[in-house]
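Section 3.1: Structural characterization of target chains.
Under the original work plan, the team committed to producing a structural model for every single-chain target entering the pipeline before any wet-lab resources were allocated. The record below documents one such target. The sequence was received from the expression subgroup and is listed exactly as submitted; it comprises 359 residues.
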Amino acid sequence: NTVVADTSVMAFQPGSWEEAAYDVYVGLRVGVSHAMYFGKLAVLDSIVKPTMNYMGIKVEEPQKQKQQIDDGGLKVIGVGYGRTGTYSLTMALEELGFPTLHTQHLYENDEIFSMWTHSIFQPSIDSGEAFLGEPDLELIASYGYTATMDLPMALYFDQVHQKYPDCKFILTTRENSEVWFSSWDTLTKSITQPARYGGLLVTNVNQLFIYMRWLYSIVNNDNTYLTAPFPLPNQHKEKSIASYEAHNRRVREEIPSHQLLEYKVNEGWEPLCRFLEIKECPTKPFPKSNSARSVQVQAISSMVVPLIIIFFLLFTLFTYIFQHITGKTMLQWISTKLHQTMCTLPYRTAMTLKGKKGA
């Protein structure tokens, strides 16, 4: 299970040191959780599965259980770009009874992630041109999700509206385009390197950086991201903002007003419940998660923790081999060498003084 951190329950003053400290704590907690998850997958993919295949033991791939759903299919789609409060809204929708697929958890469902990769992301890279294509919406709904948040699904509002004409859409936005880009730029810079190195070991992380190539190409309207070497180039501010504003404008033009809620997460529960026709609106604080600071710490810790574990394993292996060869532990060997040095030091000092007198 993925660690989910809701900072709203802590009721910190904005900008306080307590809020900053808690953001760091949350980032470390989530980053370590992701590192452990992907570390487990790396061990399975790189060691356990090859060993079992070599021994002739068939490995069954675990799949998330599909669920029976009603005929309504997808009911709520978040059509806001990333870094507009999509994760906080995901937590809110879950609270209101809408199982929600957020891109941050896309890697947990291999069949859905592979659908995106094989039908859209990788073909875009192979062709040298990023295109939207047609995702399998029924596949997403077949796993029991009635709502989605964040990119890439936010881009497919027209296809969703055509297939599910009664679906409702929530356009999350920030105070202005400059604020959005600042947060988006921070996120993209934070996750590029962890995805690059994690992709060398874990298939789903490899799919993640394939997705990043495609996504950056779409958002920046620049196909060079599809083949650029890692680390990927920084976001183009003017192009990204133009894409963000054009997307929001298209949503407002194409989705009927009675099916669209334009929303900022600091507005809280009331407009959301009214739009979704929820009679009993929660009285608890509205969820708040994934601050820019927390995301940065999360990205760094998810890369550093595996490196620490690898270093520890290599050091343990080295000490084992060292003891096998020398017959001593490293501490015993160092202690012996120090003792020998201290014992011979007076003799060496005397010989040095004698040499000086002879001269």
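Residues 1-7, 198-204 have pLDDT under 50 and may be disordered.
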